[in-house]
Amino acid sequence: MSEHIVKEDLLRSGDAPERVARINLDAFRHNVRVLAGLAAPAETMVAVKADAYGHGMVELAAAALEAGATALAVLDIPAALALREAGFTVPIFAWMHGPDADFDGAVAAGIDIGVSALWQLERIADAHGRLTDAEPACVHLKIDTGLHRNGATVEQWPGLVTRALELDAAGSLRLYAAWSHLADASPEHDRDALDAFRAAVTVAEGLGARFVKLHLAASSAGIRMPEARFDMVRFGIAAYGVSPFDDETAEELGLRPVMTLTAPVVSVKRVPAGHGVSYGFDYRTTRETTLALVPLGYADGIPRAASGRGEVWIGGTRYRVAGRVAMDQIVVDVGDAPVALGDEVVVFGEAPGAGAGAGAAADAGAGAGASAVPTAEEWAGWARTIGDEIVARVGPRVVRQYVGDKAAGAERAGEAEAEADAEGDAGAVESWVVADPEAMHALGVQFAGRLAAGDVLVLTGELGAGKTTFTRGLGEGLGVRGAVTSPTFVLARTHPNGATGVPLVHVDAYRLGAAAELEDLDIDFAHSIVVVEWGAGMIENLVDGYSELVIERPRGDSGDGAVRAGDDGAAEGAGGEVDVDEPVEPRRVALYRRGAAGRALASGETAEPAGERR
User: Fold this and answer.
1) Among positive and negative, which fits the CA dihedral 477, 480, 482, 486?
2) Per-residue pLDDT tens for 23-60?
3) Would residue 279 show up in a list of annotated catalytic residues for this protein?
4) Which of 213, 269, 279, 510 is labelled catalytic?
């Protein structure tokens, strides 16, 4: 199977696209998990409008649901119907409608419909009357809280609610939710809008409305305004790894860039001092230098407003765009650097080879003269706009390639085998083939019998491999108190054990950048059983020895068009014509001894865990 998915069928045999936007689905899943955990107990609706901010609607919708989103938001009915046709069965919300909107199609497909005016209610009711077999559409009434786009005014609101209640009573629609948008003008303005929203809900309830859900917050309020989260948060740009704030970066929020925009160097030439570059000769060389030509321009989404200010990354170093951005190309002055024809230029995103883990993008390629890859937020600053526009404006001739993090499990397993060969060891102490999430859970339950105070177990594997599922079983087998869930948002969670007195400490090192940050968690390794997800490369600096369980989940087309289950096995079908390179079963699990790892873990002297022994 190919290691990535190409959205456009532009890759012919032996050809490669010159302009590529790599869309990292694992980074997107990570962001959704972070945001969903922050918003909980409110539900997470992920906005995939505008073709998922230029990332690809169907592909990103599937990844959002795998990561814990429970609903999807698009702008209009055609996009909602496209998702239904692709096989998505979750709630899909569409809220902007022209006078010729296909309400019949929306009602027939069970689309949740945002409503701002009486005429929309009437059209929805009429559509239901024509479709005798259709369920009433779930209607979300919008109150204008000050943004003054759509939504009912304070004066219009009682009439809108009253008519919706009448049509609900008649069975023509279902009055389901109240919602609105915030202006993000200032915290004070947003608090005023929140008060206006609450007042509108109170008025509606006084008229007899009993809303199932209230939703107001999008990315910025979902992160910084807990009181605005209500029952559901509509996360948009933050899920794509772009900060909604001017004073806090995506990295500081624990988010990863999802889109990486690249192109190759297509021309290299040496020129003397004093030569003008690009239209208008706004830039002139000040010395003999090398100019590199990159086939990306404002037709591809590079903002012309960033001419002479924007920076790109080539081989670990940043270079500024020399002169004006043209329609199809930019020129970069690389000085005397050995930049060659075909070298990859990264405009923004993650560095080549960067994968999961905090600081991965910034640290990739670190060394003498190395720099972090520019971010979409930085390009927004150079162009005096917002990061949303930078990613959403990337043009259609830029091919989208759908990739994931390099399989950490396979990589670590390969390293382990290399170490074993060098040391004359046999490599993996034990290995199993695990059929499904239930078997992974059972493996954890039985593995618990191997553990005692002082044991440290590192779990390695890509996102969705089953690390948390295994640990949940481990907690059950140990008999600890409290449900074992992903500790991503607290970094470490301690589960007491009343029977043995030995607690289970569950750590997620995914967002930690160094061993020092892990050490700062002040874990009592001597008197606890410690399980660390993503801990390889850090834990060895804190303990003399440990065991590592490497979970490798292969990828491949399932053959049925369905999106495969995530870590907890909760599949959300994408179906249709989506050609995905998704994780499949079975999983392979290997146990390795690192340093002076506990013998009980590696010996296999206790009951054999579930799964096919290898």
Assistant:
1) negative
2) 999 999 999 999 999 999 999 999 999 999 999 999 99
3) yes
4) 279
